[in-house]
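Hi Q.,

Before the meeting this afternoon, I wanted you to have the EPU prediction in hand. No need to reply - just skim if you have a minute. The sequence and ligand are here:
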Amino acid sequence: MEKVIKIEGGHRLQGEVKVSGSKNATVALIPAAVLANGPVTISGVPGIADVDSLCAILRILNVEVTEKEDHLIIDPTSMKNTDLTADVVTKLRASYYFMGALLGKYGYVRIRMPGGCYLGPRPITLHIKGFEALGASVEYEKGCYTIQADHLKGAKIFLDIPSVGATVNIMMAAVYAKGRTVIENAAKEPEIIDVATLLNKMGANIRGAGTNVITIEGVSELQGCFHEIIPDRIEAGTYVIMGAACADSLLIKNVIPKHIEALTSKLQETGANLEIGIDSILVTKSEGIHGVNITTKPYPGFATDLQQPMTTYLTQAAGISEVLDTVYPERFKHCHELQRMGADIEISMGKSLIKGPSALYGDKVTATDLRCGAALVIAGLLAEGVTEIHDVYHIDRGYDNIDGKLEAMGGVIWRDTVD
Ligand code: EPU
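Predicted structure with the ligand bound:
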């Protein structure tokens, strides 16, 4: 028996939706919290499966975790640096943040290869390059990394690609290192600023997060603190796209509009009606939208994570749209699922060509990864009939209460079990 999501299409959305705390910030903030020597309270924690997995890892490390509404109190006072070989480590990508956090705190970590969405090859060579530059030795054997150092020493590290994961991992490994670490060609994503903010509240000395040069002066002590997570720009973007695709009027609240400017300006280019407020975006029905070309780039460029939901929207736009993913050139599995529902899409290496508008029809489809799931939910809302989405655990890994939020907007969505 398998749990699926079913969506009855054709109901226009209306009302408002509040965006939750950022998934990709949260999954880094939780491992970062173990660097403190006292309790860290994180508020605005989204109710997603990745958070449950990270809390399970914290408990393996004997870290006390208290969940109170959307607060998480993480107390590492009695922590033990246990080897992270349990299966839960492979359930998500972000378990790799325990590499930087445990290496930084103890000078030793043994951890299974992380999991997460398959988006094409996702090497962690730059994380390793950073740890080695700080003086650590790295061994990979039987699916497990062992990373250790007698002393970590600040270093200058140039990232060949501005990797989000490598930037955060090196920042965490370097907070206690002796002297100054400089990360050049660092990733500039807002989630990196959020992690640096938490670490600085704990007592770290990190400057430049949000730019491509981050400087970390090693410190000897980090304490507990309180931190509120930034809103999820990818969840916000997903609801803005959903609103533009099928709402009469939808107010998306708890947004930092600047974080999704590459998306909102593209949507406006298609003819979508958006009113951008200080911390909200209102989407109202537009009378005819047309295709555009999109190229994904690291922040502040068009986010690869929004390329997939945007593709569903573009199936409704008149003319031809080209979507080029330069971050993950193989991130196009959603296109095969959309084709099943009636979309006219040609896929070639690194890009898709979408001819619209196409009528979509409900069918049995598979969420091959998290944002493919989001693309299929939007397609289900647009389609005639009922769409049945399989492998919904991907969606639950990253979208907080998607059923409740959609129902409140007038969407018809329910869970079912099928053979
Ligand atoms: N890369 C390398 N070597 C490395 C690291 C990365 O070649 O050592 C390449 C990757 O293969 C990719 C590019 O660099 O082509 C960017 O990867 P990055 O390291 O920035 O990605 P990540 O840290 O693994 C995070 C998000 C992803 C998001 C990407 C890009 C988390 C937990 N994940 O992944 O989010 O797509 O940045 O913005 O923060 C999602 O939320 O659905 C998701 C997949």
